[in-house]
Amino acid sequence: MLKLVVNGKQHELDVDPDTPLLWVLRDNLNLTGTKYGCGIAQCGACTVHMNGQPVRSCMTPVSEVKDFDITTIEGLSENSSNPVQLAWIEEDVPQCGYCQSGQIMVAVALLRRKANPTDADINAAMTNICRCGTYTRIRKAIHNAAANQQS
Amino acid sequence: MVLTRRDFLGNSLMTGLTVAGGMMISFHVPAKARPFKPYASKGAELNAWLIIESDNTITIRVAQAEMGQGVFTSLPMIIADELEADWRTVRVEYADANRSLAEGRVYKRMLTGSSAAVRSSMPYLQQAGAQAREKMIKAAAEKWQVEPGECYADYGSIYHKPSRQKVTYGEIAGAAALVSVANVKIKTSESFSLIGVDTPRVDTPAKVNGSAVFGMDIRIEGMVYAAVVHCPVLGGTVRSFRYNAIRNMPGVLQAVRMKSGIAVVAKSFWQAKTAAEKLVVQWDIGPEGKTYSETFRREYSAALNEAGTIVEEEGEVVAEMEAADKRIESDYLVPYLAHACMEPLNCTVSVKPDRVDVWAGLQDPESALKAAAEESGVAAENVYVHNCFLGGGFGRRANDDFVREAVQIAREVDSPVQMIWSREDDIRQGQYRPMASMRFKAGFDLNRNVVAYTNHSVAHSILKDIGAPLENGIDKASLEGLANIPYALGPKKITHTIRNTHMSSWWWRSVGNSQNVFARECFVDEMAAKANMDPYAFRKKYLSHRPDLIAVLQEVADKSQWGRGVPGGHAQGIAIHQSFGTTVAQVAEVSVTDDGKVKVHRVVSVVDCGNLVNPLTAEMQIESAIIFGLSAALFGKITIEKGRVLEDNFDTYRVLSLSETPVIETHWLLSGGENWGGLGEPGLPCVAPAVINAIYGITRRRIRSLPVSDYFLQPA
User: Contact at 8 Å (CB) between B698 and B590?
Assistant: First the structure.
């Protein structure tokens, strides 16, 4: 049995320890907000937080995260109240929306690290792929979230 | 969210959430076979498009797929505007393909494509909203014993003007469902209340907290998972496979032979995928296994010398070309491209002897329904397709290949099955934007006026792939952007050759325009150079008979400060095209680094789509098409070696990143009238030529094949 803390809840799971965290979240815990996009840690759609740090869960074996607190998009806030989520709504960032859980998780971690990120900081941190091309709105929403957090 | 068997058989699945203002987004998964009855358990169905409940909640149905382009907002806006609804009380659900087939296609066009959601459905959605409004007015007038002409609808209530009586939609809808009205008038544009107003997307709240349900998020009680093993060469078939070697791997339940490969079914997707990677399959591969991109390129170039089928011929083009003082000739080439939607293709299917259920993100639920009926042997009337949010579509999800595979698997399995293609399957398993080559020739007189123009193109035909009839031996989609060109270039001849390979082809965002406008608009710049003219001035001269295009062209020159100077090392490029009822002109500002990297700094667009439903989502579509077009222009290609596709994931099939995204400015120049031009695709075709024409300004090199990353570039 493998013990896992996800969104503040403890789980005991009977899974192969090599299973990527992504599939444990989706198939065992039914937390489907975290997405499969590439399976090789390229696109970032699977991003979750491990003790607050963004990780790409598609290449992270579940055995490696058993001592960490995992946060997924579902556990980010009550009622979508995280400033990043609010900024995403304000800017109407998502189009198809499939990559946006991952984008938001990376943006939240960025703002924890840098309360007022520059465009260069955003370029460096936001390496997640969006095929709908919502990048311009993502950048604006991060700046807005930073401003809202400070006011 | 887990759908239990009881929910599945019982009533409906609401995965909606209430957000500020009371807007609800829901997926309504109809349960029992009850195609002739309204789906909402409560409330009055005023027509197939809308239901009003006693608490004033209005459910509006959408027949097109929400794949990011905003139809869950724009199409209900059209109905709600006529309905005089309180927009805050509107929620949205998919229209049902099963019902549409059962009721004489009550939802009309359910295919999402050709940038046609608004263009094709505007009149009948307006009619649906107006009809429901008039029914409620008539019912209220009957209730009050007054003349309907003295009553009016406003913001969710019916009023009797003289007596100031009022009844809400929720109160009158039940009676209104029983009356009939005829010859209902729809509004004229000056009385629109919602149409034309920036309206936040109804799907945004569910897309920022993980609750939006995509095909891959469907969970059915008892569901198992399937991973697929496809032949690395398209069209190859299974000779044999060794199931025994994987049958004892964890979670593995069974293997199913599909027409196109083998599916490994397991308790979890990871178990299925791990076992599928270990499965040894012997394939029967024909001569396709000896093909290469390079060979295709040579064949497509050689075919440019063929006479081809005549598409257009005007004037004495041969004589004029021979008599010309100067001539230029250029060949262009574009590769196959994958769609690479963010959500890899997937489909969940339950097959029972008398009923099939399909859950997936689908651009064509009716074709999926028919495909599921064919593959399962269950009558179409007992097949139910439950559309989901699409994690990208771009044309790819209008194909039913993945639905057929999922049904072939599910009919052999006792439980519902969710089939997921890996990203590698998604990029390697076909349905590509066609490969094409084009040759352009232009003749000039002594004063450098264009006096003759010819174009021959060679392309992989989508229609031929699917066995659809060709009109005079022509696939019109292959000629979008090459036939009926707007420029007045004198005598001209347009010819075409169809050349298909073993690769499969399919619609890709903006279809033929995506490849042809690149080549045509780059050649226009080549003509301008030969004529010693500025590319903008050249376009103005040869489009002078088209004031509609000139207006857009002048506006983009103005907004981009064309020719008024850019920073050192930068250059501008321009392109214009009309497609899907919409004219787009773009100016790109570009630089090239010393190590050969192209940096796109700014893309300015001017768009005339006539009229707009939701300016917010319209602008998002232009931004989206620019990024999609830039990815293709700069990086996009599918490479074939020994019949196999080399690219397999986002590391080898590169797409644009946030840090590479230019400043995007979109300006509307709306000509009004009756035109409601498309928006999902028309922003794409001009971006490649605008960028490449700008690259010429820096490097003095003509890029005539894509992607740009194949070239080693240096500032001149």
Answer: yes
* B210-222 mean pLDDT: 97
The SS3 assignment for B236 reads coil
Residues of chain B contacting A89 with CB distance shorter than 8 Å: 200, 204-205, 208
Q: Which two tokens stand for residue B570?
A: 């930068």
Return the minimum-mean-pLDDT range out of A72-86, B40-54, B338-352: B40-54
Burial class (CB in 10 A: 0-12, 13-18, 19+), B87: buried
The type of residue at B643 is G
* The pLDDT of residue A66: 86
**What part of B 189-208 touches A (C-beta under 8 Å)?**
200-201, 203-208
Model pLDDT for residues B495-533, shown as the tens digit of each residue:
999 999 999 999 999 999 999 999 999 999 999 999 999
Looking at the predicted structure, is the pLDDT value of residue B19 above 50?
no
Per-residue pLDDT, B38: 39
Contact A42/B at CB under 8 A = yes
pLDDT number for residue A67: 87
CA angle B76, B80, B82 (to 5 degrees): 125
Any A CB within 8 A of B248 CB? no
Task: Please report how many Cα atoms fall inside a 13 Å half-sphere around the Cα of residue B698, on the Cβ side.
Answer: 30
| Sequence-separated (6 or more) residues with CB below 8 Å from residue A147 | none
Residue A100 at interface with chain B, using a CB cutoff of 8 Å: yes
Spatial distance between the Cα atoms of A73 and A7, rounded to a whole number of angstroms: 9
Distance of CA B545 to the CA centre of its chain: 32
Residues of A in contact with B420 (CB under 8 A): 36
**In 3D, which of B402, B365, B346 has the Cα closest to residue B63?**
B365
Nearest CA in chain A to B418: A27
DSSP characters for B601-662?
EEEEEEEE-B--S-HHHHHHHHHHHHHHHHHHHHH----EETTEE---STTTS----GGGPP
CA distance B552 to B585: 6
In the three-class reduction of DSSP (H, G, I as helix; E, B as strand; rest coil), residue B433 is classed as strand
DSSP type of residue B72:
H
pLDDT band, residue B41 (cuts 50/70/90): low
* First-residue to last-residue Cα distance in chain A: 46
DSSP B3: B
In terms of DSSP bridges, do strands B224-230 and B237-241 run parallel, antiparallel, or are they unpaired?
Answer: unpaired
Instruction: Compute the distance between CA of residue B90 and CA of residue B57 in angstroms, rounded to an integer.
Output: 6
